[in-house]
Amino acid sequence: MGVPIAMGGFSFKCTLVTVARLIGVPGLLFSVGVTAALSQQPAASPSAVSAEWRDTSLPAERRADLALAAMSRAEKLQLVFGYFSTQAPWMISATKNFVAPDAGRVNSAGYVPGIERLGIPALWETDAGEGVATQRSPNPRERTALPSGLALAASWDRQNAFAGGAMIGNEARLSGFNVQLAGGVNLLREPRNGRNFEYAGEDPLLAGTIVGFEIQGIQSNHIISTLKHFAFNDQETNRGTIDVAIDETAARESDLLAFQIANEIGKPGSVMCSYNRVNGAAACENDWLLNQVLKADWRFKGYVMSDWGAVRSTVEAAKAGLDQESGWAFDASAYFGGALREALNYGHVDQSRLDDMACRILFAMFANGLFDNPILGDQSAQINFSAHASVTRSAAEDSIVLLKNDDLLPLKSSLKTIAVIGGHADKGVLSGGGSSQVYPIGGLAVPNEGPKDFPGPMVFYPSAPMKALQSRSSATITYADGNDLDAAAGLASRSDIAIVFATQWAAESLDLPNLDLPNGQDALIAAVAKANPRTIVVLETGGPVFMPWLSQVGAVLEAWYPGTSGGEAIARILSGEVDPSGHLPATFPASLSQLPRPQLDGDAKLDEDAHPSTNYNVEGAAVGYKWFDKRALTPLFPFGYGLSFTRFDLGGLSAEPAGEGIRVSLSVRNVGKVEGKAVVQAYVGRESGSWEAPKRLGSFDKVELAAGESKSITLDIDPLLLATFDPSSKKWLIEPGDYKVIVGQSATDVAASTTVHLDFRELEIGRH
Ligand code: BGC
């Protein structure tokens, strides 16, 4: 919270202007008036500027206040308006005549000029959560890519997420960026969503925790990370126009809970509002989302930046809580450019609101060290790519999920011949497309694939699983590209074992038509498995897919998009050098008819004037496994599922009320012959009551165990997962009664369960 300070006879807390207005605290309301009065003073002249805000011993709030007080209105306006930093040919229209600013980083997402007079640094913005992206090739930045966001969530490993974030944040800083547009946490409500690979799955606790730790890692480099796309941007079809209907309780207990948890853990400097509408209002001019939920209830002190092209107005957006327009000239007009200046002149927007916008941006910059640890331009020569290759490889190893294994894996050393089929496994591994696209060192392993323009190209990273496997095996490994089914089946029949690599490319702006593997790969796998039942399938997909051939094959590994060292990671798991320890962060449905929306709402062919809508109240907060539980549906693979080359037993369960939640104690033992990592999950359920579904994930941990080793662990159930949101009192309420605690290694596994009685409790709406 801001510390009131004396400035020229006035006292104010700039970061609380919006909150004050909303919650109507008299003392804070006074501060609004004062801010407005102060801002009518002329800005201090350079000589009068004492630059007290440079004092690193002062809290960030106070430094922001001090810097703000020295700024002219024109300077504040400059800070709230960002530019695209790529010369996109389609933006050079007669009306926009866009020229990418020289001082931006070439082919990057964004740039906000600094204010030299006051020593306020520029903001150089880059995508995204997998690493430092490039907007347009040719000549992209070549950087390290983590496995996809969904893969990071499949690791169920907080340290892994932090380490990955710290690594990509380091590359961002050394590439000349101080804002990383990471932190995608939209829930996997729709398995066909083309951006699921950028997000962290279907469960609010898992997604919020993993993304929160990744943000912490990024920001440990003294740069800002975003948390995005706020909110309910859970499909790409009609993303700019679709109106999502969702009731407040369901909203708070699902997607918003993921954002709330990620915000608490990660403390991102900025939150990016999304393209879609929510309950009628565009997300970037949505008073409920921005002013009430984010800024008042969660006491978010940073700034809200728009997604690129997501602003629809000046006055409404400013009043609803948008603090910075991004990526001009994506928007139809320069809403926070000249139009905001006019709106201020005519009193349609209060000067205090502009102060609040600028102050929030300054706060995020001070809080994350942007003033004290300036970006020194392009220092990419200093990036330690070989160390970073190990970070991404180990992240991938932690995230790969073994879904089936009839004793084919790890590969036996007695194998003489191995057929590797399809997926360009002789050349590399796939990545997801769109603005998050990281280009690898060494260029594209498979050029000229996928669309030429956005969201293409289709990028394969030059980390070939086949090559990495060959270096670990004395068998003769032969490749077939899989285009000719007979040739592939023939090779498989002549080999001791066949490994089919199947890919599914997903990308921003496009949803998947269905969950089938594209380009006849299901038929390829069936033909190979028929020729040789000792067939292993390695999937490189953006999210869940169907597996009509499942009963015919001997083993399945879900490798997601495994990042720039993905081929090595896959080979190390296939060969048994590493035990697979990923668990699904999302339910794999058995059919589209099991989904809340068997058919996706909206239509990619609709024009901009159409008003498509989608009703999230169908499932409400019962997203993913919660929907499957509630409807007693059997998925192909449940949430939380994942095998290992060893086995873990859970036992000695006890649970008791502790603090506002429940403390669960148990022991986990590795009962197999190799070391491995168990993913222990604690679910909570109400015997009766008003929950959206029979149970919720309440806590989890990943535990490393040597063969035969046993450990005692405690899992604290987050009180929010025991509560229901009551919109009338604006409180989270824990109803009195019995709560079931179930521990297991997936959402359908019940290793042990017990009951805990809780008394009635009210929880604060936001915690800090
Ligand atoms: C995406 C954002 C991204 C921005 C800047 C938009 O198209 O939705 O996630 O950060 O572009 O590249």
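qc> The two ends are 10 Å apart (CA to CA).
qc> done
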